[in-house]
Each structure stands twice: as structure tokens, then as C-alpha cells.
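Lab manual, section 2.4: Encoding a predicted structure.

Procedure: take the sequence of the chain (239 residues), apply the prediction step described in section 2.3, and record the output as C-alpha cells. A sample record is shown.
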Amino acid sequence: MQIETDEGVSGIGPADTGAVSFYIDTQLKPLLIGQNPMAIELLWDQMYRNAIHGRKGDNMMAISSIDIALWDLKGKFLGQPVYKLLGGPVQDKIPAYASALGFSIEPKKAKERVKEFIRQGYTATKWFFREGPSDGPEGVRKNIELMKALREAAGEDMKIMIDCWNSWDVPYTLKMAELLAEYRPFWFEEPVLADLPQSYARLRATCPVTIAGAEHEYTRWGCKMLMDMGAMDVYHVDT
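Recorded output:
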């Protein structure tokens, strides 16, 4: 997605779904045409207030896309990288983990992928477990088998994170924490539905594994609510 100005400066932002693009074209574009692209906070406020019936999901992703493009445009106009406009660097480097989204979770292939991540220099990796409460004992067995394979390939020091796809519940998460304990999962990400902050707070208080989430919370106010509740140990806020 690209925003253009009458002075020839443009900015780009992501728009990776049809719904996001549609919302930008039909709802946000009319609010932006003819406006001052440097007034980023004002434009964000106007877009947000316009989305009175949709302040999560695709609508907020669309607003975020515009916001990113406006910051990109401002950086180009001023000849400065955006990180300087936002206050400058806090540290020179940050740790990264290898996400295995899209790769096979068949244990043998997963082990090969982990070894490749290690060769690339990663010290942590995240895997996406497909089995949940509705899959019964066989699903539990598959989860254990996958985690065992990952740990065997990773060795003792590599961190292994588990993304649960919002598909577990509190009892199942506690059960998996017990069954996977010997393989030392570093965190469980989004183990329960994102709409159940009380369940996250309960897990954080009782689960021995670090609880991560907030990927499906889209505003500063929603994130603050989760923090005030002490719902998670690690916050992954996307927008």
C-alpha cells in the first residue's frame, strides 16, 4: 500500500489481506485525501474514531498500515530514518528467534529444520502445535512426540517456544505444561482464546511455563487492560 503526495514524496505500508485493502480504499482513503500527511497523530485519531464499530482485526490493521506509511513518508520528507523520529535507538541489537510457521511438524522433518536454524546462528525457535483438547489422547501424544524431537535436535541451551493457536483451554494448558516439563518449553504463546483475559491471568498465576500473548489485541488501551490484569508474562502486540 502506498500513499502519494502532491510534492512527489510517498510512503509505503503493509496491506496483506483483501479485507484490509478494501477497508483502506472505502473507509480510510476518503479521510486522507487532501490532508496534511505530517499530521500523523491527528489522522490516526480521525481514522480510529471513524472505526467506531470495528476496533479490532482488519479495521485496525488497515489503520496501522496507513500509520506506517505516513511515518515512512515523513522520514523520507525529512531525510531521516523513522527510528530517529521516534526517539532514536535504545540498544544496538536485539535477540531474534526462528519462527517455524509454514514448516512441517512431522518430528523427523522438524528436527532437521531445527538443526538448520542452529547452523544459521539462532539460539531460539518457535513452533506451532496443531493438536488441542478436541484431538484427545492421540493429540497429546503427538504434542509430546514433537516437543521431544525438537529438544533432541536443539540440545540443552536452545530456547523452544510453543504457539498454541488460541486453541487450548486452561486445564489442557496446565496438563501440557506438566507433560512437556522435561523438554523445557520456554513459553506457551496464546494458549487460550484472545477474548479470555481472565484465563490468561489464571494461567500466569498457576502455570510453570511462561505465558505469552496479546497478538490479537490491537490498541494501546486493550494492551494496558491486559497489563493491569497481569494477564501475561510476554506481550506480543502486533499493531
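Check your result against the sample. Residues 55 and 218 are 7 Å apart (CA to CA).
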